[in-house]
Design goal:
CATH class: Alpha Beta
Helix content: 25-40%
Radius of gyration: 15 Å
Shape: globular
CATH topology: Rossmann fold
Number of helices: 5
CATH architecture: 3-Layer(aba) Sandwich
Number of strands: 7
Number of domains: 1
Strand content: 15-25%
Largest sheet: 7 strands, mixed
Length: 187
Amino acid sequence: MILVAGLGNPGPRYAQTRHNVGFMAVDRLAGQSASFSARFHGAWATLQLAGEACGLLKPQTFMNLSGRSVQAALAFTRVPLDRLIVIHDELDLPFGEVRLKLGGGHAGHNGLRSISGAIGPDYVRVRVGIGRPPADFRGMVADYVLDAFSASERTTLDGVVERAAAAVTDIVRLGLPGAMNVTNRKA
């Protein structure tokens, strides 16, 4: 089994914010074929992805406590750490870029900090670029990630979410090195 955890915050207030792009990608993977139920302090669904059993998790603990949900799902399913894929927003990538990475630090991302604190840092990450706040943004970085996508971002957001979901499918189908060759290459 593969476990895919998309990071975000629960509730309608956060549904279309930059910080919830992980939830959006998991919803895209689920499509119409998987329905979510409450498990592991999150929303949980299972499906077949590229011929593999796959668990989809959207932690409902709020971002800062995502590790609680991911750890519970890993403990129950006994999925090894190298078969955990975490999809998250990434300030250090321009909006729209999708990159794959194995392990690493949290770069100030509280969801990654929580997960790494609970299980260690050596899991696969699908990093979805949201870019840094523009120069005229009035507020803190936390305000930016919890803000809705801009009108111009919304015009291409669907394609970004699709690329993040496709990257997960490529990881399952090709393995991480093969998927990195496809996803991380520069256009």
